[in-house]
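Objective 1b of the project was to move from sequence-level analysis to a structural picture of ligand recognition. The entry below was assembled by the postdoctoral researcher (A.K.) and checked by the PI before modelling. It contains the amino acid sequence of the target and the SMILES of the bound compound, zinc ion.
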Amino acid sequence: MYTSIKSKPEVHIFSSVLFQTNTTLLVFPTQLLLVDPNYTPQELADIAAFIQQNFPDKKINLFFTHSDYDHVVGYGIFQNAAHGIMSAPMAALPSERKKDILQEIKITDATWYIERSPETLIFPPKDIVIEKDGQLWEIDGYQVRFYFAPGHTADGLVCFVNDICICGDYLCDTEFPFIYHSFEAYRNTLQKLSQLFKQYDTRILLSGHGKVAAKSAEIEHRLLLANQYLEDIEKEVISGIPLDENYLQKQYPFWWGIKKFHHENLALLRKEKSGGS
Ligand SMILES: [Zn+2]
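Corresponding predicted holo structure:
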């Protein structure tokens, strides 16, 4: 699915049929910022054709919000981009981990019989590495600020430009928080995002999956739901009384597909609470 927003800068969003993973394109006067290009080879070819047709003279820059396989899968198609931006923790991933991430793409492709040229399967190399929280990147007179966002994964990175926030896999309307890295870090990141939304007067939230939130009220609502979920699973882990999963089932239309992540969240939180890591 394709959507565009007449914001400043202008935004184009391409949503994959797989997990509704979003590719976001920000259009600056002479350059582009292409975020997490994905997923199927046909969808990636369509995005490349869209850019070629509409912005043939603009330089492409890439931004990877985190290292999950569905967010790095498109690098190989855009490997001639001017720059690729990622967080320092993502740049520092050991090569074994990078191989595993590429393997996840191969397994997903094999599961759905997706044909992809093996030579496009490349993990994005280090280029512009964000080392400092709030680091500034200037592009065509616009100020883009990057902030670390650990919790979903350890290497998450979000960015703010004007009233737009690109927030990776946080605050998606399609899913409750998926906590692969750390519950504590996730909670801190939500708090940090809430402050940053105020600071930047954010009105457009571009999440990694699902629909754009184009109103402050919708952004607030998503924050509320995410915080509520964290509170609920913490309550369950502390009290031992299972949460009523019916409300999650009603809230999230893909519940039967994502239910396992809820149980994995609980397991991770139990481990964190008992002092394991
Ligand atoms: Zn994702």
